[in-house]
Amino acid sequence: MPELILGPAGEPGTELTIEAGDGSGTVRRSVLPGGIRVLTEAMPAQRSASIGAWVAVGSRDEHDGHHGSTHFLEHLLFKGTPRRTAMDIASAFDAVGGEANAATGKEHTCYYARVLDADLPMATDVILDMVTSALLDADELESERGVILEELAMNEDDPTDVAHERFAEAVFGQHALGRPIGGTAETIQAVPRDAVLAHYRRTYVPSELVITAAGGVDHDALCAQVLDAVTTGGWELPGGALPAARRHPGELKGIPGSGSALTVSRPTEQANVLLGGLGLVANDERRFTMTVLNAVLGGSMSSRLFQEVREKRGLAYSVYSFSSGYTDAGLFGLYAGCAPSKVGDVVAILDDQLRLLADEPVDAEELARGIGQVCGGLVLGLEDSGSRMSRLGRAEITLGELTTVEDNLDRIRAVTAEDVRALAADLVAQPRHLVVVGPFDDDVAARLLPA
Questions:
Q1: Sheet of 99-104, strand order
Q2: What CATH class has 7-232?
Q3: Measured between alpha carbons, how far is 385 from 137 in angstroms, rounded to an integer?
Q4: What is the 3-state secondary structure of the chain?
Q5: Which of 119, 278, 376, 378 is most exposed, with the fewest beta carbons within 10 Å of its own?
Q6: pTM of the model
Q7: CATH class of 260-448
Q8: How many CA atoms lie within 13 A of 37 on its CB side?
Q9: Using CA atoms, how far apart are residues 229 and 126, in angstroms rounded to an integer?
Q10: Nearest one of 132, 124, 126, 128 to 213, comparing CA atoms
């Protein structure tokens, strides 16, 4: 089954269709007036539906003086519109047993809901009322400023969150991807309402809006509901307007050219260790190899890290590898939580296991197990409408292509042992960054950073 290439797709009225070929239904993509994009995946026999309203704007897109605005908006859009109070928004979903929430990332923001299929028109209207007509009331903003500061304080009290945040800052350096998604206490305290309002007006526009839905959904009906909702919200939809161009890789300014070591002192019972560096960009063809590499190295109870660190030596309860990709850079890391006295042993094992993977191809049994884990996880992860809805958003905003589940399975099954070894070698060759969070008086990370 050929892939569906997702681009601006020309004038409003353009439509593309792909037959899933795996029994899950048909994916349709339409460009509406104003450049709004709507993608749906019909899932026969589903009585529920998930919908997401995406804007391809994240924390990396904030101007100086606006840092934290994207996450601030995520909160404020739930605080009311001219048609609805915050209580009206919350009770609309509670009254039908639905769920509504939002998520801010480094490159996008999504407002989403899961409801019964009969309640999808309501969910569409409420979410798009929020997106198009948020009041951003000054008093509500000040109240929510306190809520966000408490959220940031909560994260700072979680040593695992601290470790991951500092790790991203270390790897990406002064690049915008290194900034925390939620901002900092200082930036949230300092950002004025005018900056948040300017960020909202600049980025929440028809050409940036992507609507994705999956489950019991009728594509044509949803397109009509979207147009009605955004028109009611007061958006102008200029004829012939195209969707905003997909984000293109930029110059990687500010990313360190050498490794680093950081020790963060916290009065904890356990040390949190992160070792790694740059990974793959989001649409790198080797992303399928990366999923297999992670499965083999640190993605399951049979993985090398789990066996070496936890099962054989009892050094940690939680240990894993991870990766994340963005338009022009990616992150790869190894994590473990261990006793402070065992940090040296754990760092050495993390480093050794990655180097071993880079030195010798995995054997056939281990490769097959890793591929099987990834394939099974992919299929099981798409059993619900929310996962399908999110897949459409990622395809449209980040990847620029939508492939069937079978296409993805074929790509994963095509990964070879040499592919995994070569990617591991590339990861080892990147500048190394080590972050250790725990009850340390000295700079333990500087002593333990692998060469």
A1: 15-19, 26-31, 37-42, 209-215, 48-55, 109-116, 99-104
A2: alpha beta
A3: 34
A4: CCCEECCCCCCCCCEEEEECCCCCCEEEEEECHHHCEEEEEECCCCCEEEEEEEECCCHHHCCCCCCCHHHHHHHHCCCECCCCEHHHHHHHHHCCCCEEEEEECCCCEEEEEEEEHHHHHHHHHHHHHHHHHCCCCHHHHHHHHHHHHHHHHHHHCCHHHHHHHHHHHHHHCCCHHHCCCCCCHHHHHHCCHHHHHHHHHHHCCHHHEEEEEEECCCHHHHHHHHHHHHHHCCCCCCCCCCCCCCCCCCCCCCCCCCCEEEEEECCCCCEEEEEEEECCCCCCCCHHHHHHHHHHHHCCCCCHHHHHHHHCCCCEEEEEEEEEECCCCEEEEEEEEECHHHHHHHHHHHHHHHHHHHHCCCCHHHHHHHHHHHHHHHHHHCCCHHHHHHHHHHHHHHHCEECCHHHHHHHHHCCCHHHHHHHHHHHHHCCCEEEEEECCCCCHHHHHCCC
A5: 376
A6: 0.93
A7: alpha beta
A8: 27
A9: 8
A10: 124
- pLDDT at position 22: 52
Q: Active-site residue among 15, 19, 41, 74?
A: 74
Q: What is the token pair recorded at 178? A: 């290194």
* 8 Å CB contact between 62 and 198: no
The answer to whether the 7-232 and 260-448 domains have the same CATH topology is yes
Tokens encoding 159: 């040593």
Token duo for residue 71: 């996450």
How many whole angstroms separate alpha carbon 227 and alpha carbon 235?
10
Is residue 269 part of the annotated active site? The answer reads no
The residues spanned by each domain of the chain are 7-232, 260-448
Alpha carbon 416 to chain centroid, angstroms: 27
Percent of the residues in the chain that have a pLDDT greater than 70, as a whole number: 95
Exposed, middle or buried: residue 131 (CB in 10 Å: 0-12, 13-18, 19+)?
buried
Q: Which residue has the tokens 């480094």?
A: 106
Residue 235, token pair as written in the block? 């958006």
User: Is residue 21 scored above 60 in pLDDT?
Assistant: no
Tell me whether strands 330-338 and 271-278 are parallel, antiparallel or unpaired: antiparallel
Closest by alpha carbon to 396, among 233, 193, 212, 259?
212
Pair 238, 420: CB distance under 8 Å: no
**38: nearest Cα among 214, 247, 239:** 214
Q: How confident is the model at residue 1 (pLDDT cuts 50, 70, 90)?
A: very low
Model confidence at 204: pLDDT above 90 = yes
Question: 340 burial class (0-12, 13-18, 19+ CB within 10 angstroms)?
Answer: middle
